[in-house]
């Protein structure tokens, strides 16, 4: 049953200071650019094209569960690397 957990999160969220959660340092949001693939594409090829590790690419694209992204899939690449990828594709 998830109801008690949801209620607890709501109470803590509304009273963050009481739980010592008011001075948290947030991580910077991931910055990325997006491209829609026209054909099935292996993520390792995309990683090589943008010169980044495959693990980083998987972190930016958690919805892509298989090694090959199908045509029409939107892929996120690290900010500033889109021109490299477009040149390769």
Describe this structure in words.
The chain has 4 helices and 4 strands. The protein is elongated. Strands 1-4 form a two-stranded antiparallel ribbon. A two-stranded antiparallel sheet has the order 2-3. The chain starts with a helix and ends with a helix. The chain is 37% helix and 16% strand. The mean pLDDT is 93. The chain is an alpha+beta fold and 89 residues long.
Question: Short description, anyone?
Answer:
The chain has helices at 3-14, 43-49, 54-60, 82-88, and strands at 32-36, 41-42, 68-69, 74-78. It is an alpha+beta fold and 89 residues long.
Q: How confident overall, as mean pLDDT?
A: 93
N- to C-terminal separation?
47 Å
Query: What summary fits the major beta sheet?
Result: 2 strands, antiparallel
Report low-confidence residues grouped into runs of 5 or more: none
Order of helices and strands: HEEHHEEH
What best-fitting shape do the alpha-carbon axes yield? elongated
Helix content: 25-40%
Give the DSSP E fraction (strand runs of 2 or more residues): 15-25%
Q: Rg to the nearest angstrom?
A: 19 Å
Provide a count of the helices: 4
Total number of β-strand segments?
4
User: What strand line-up does the widest sheet have?
Assistant: 1-4
Structure class: alpha+beta
